[in-house]
Amino acid sequence: MKISDNTIAQNEMSEISINNVDKIFGHGENIVTALNKINIQISHGEFVCLLGPSGCGKSTLLNAIAGFSLPTSGEIIVKGEVVKKPGPERGMVFQEYALFPWMNVENNIAFGMDIKGESNEKRQLVVEDLLNTLGLSEFRTRFPKDLSGGMRQRVAIARILALDPPIMLMDEPFGALDALTRRSLQDELLRIWEKSRKTIIFVTHSIEEAIYLGTRVVVLTYRPGSVKRDIAIEIPRPRDSSSAEFNEIKRELGILVMEEQQRFSDAERRGE
Questions:
Q1: Tell me: the pLDDT tens digits for 166-177?
Q2: Which ranges of the sequence are coiled-coil (predicted)?
Q3: pLDDT value at residue 96
């Protein structure tokens, strides 16, 4: 079985260092501790999946890395700099697509480049390449309302890739898609990652998706979220979700996640 605890120590090779991060919301009797003493080190080119039940702080942690909502205590260091705000080295892909409805596919993809003032020549080259890479060429003049969920998410991914950030943060980007579309986009994302070797942090509820995509899976506990296990996934690619090796890891992770899911269910019954 290709599964082992991942114990990467903080060092100069870490592209992202998450150090003793806490996140607290509210005041007084309404205080909620979302994250508690999170420590994760991520090297360049890793594909790290954050896995856990609802309420474990996966999206909260991703937003902290993005610079949208800073930690209450502790620090997050990206490429040697403490994160204090969003930055161009971090691109975010959301579950809800976040496309501009008044722009067609081509202009949605090019939006960030237009804001940066990139030349028309570069804009055309980059957009054309991404349209081809993500199978969007025949949809270039269509508007988001005319696209399926899968196509909208392809456009959202292309828009981030157009800015070429070394780090991609992805918050359950395939969670609302049907199984066939989800697998197609998973494979597309893996092809992009294998070619570019960007660092990807990917939030998911799906154990199978985490194993299929990740070089590592970090399992978070139910609130307050902390690292329950940090596991290296060493199955060769392409990965077969029906293989014995894949399913052995799936069972191991399933036990870990279900323990935290039970805590979530117990808390809901208590009205917490």
A1: 999 999 999 989
A2: none
A3: 83
CATH code, domain carrying 232: 3.40.50.300
pLDDT of residue 12: 54
Residue 107 lies in a domain: no
| pLDDT, tens only, 141-189 | 999 999 999 999 999 999 999 999 999 999 999 998 999 999 999 999 9
Beta bridge partners of 88: none
pLDDT of residue 77: 98
The parent domain of residue 56 ranges over 13-89+201-265
The number of folded domains in the chain is 1
| 235 part of a folded domain | yes
pLDDT, tens digit, 9 for 90 and up, residues 207-216: 999 999 999 9
Q: Tell me, yes or no, whether 239 lies in a domain.
A: yes
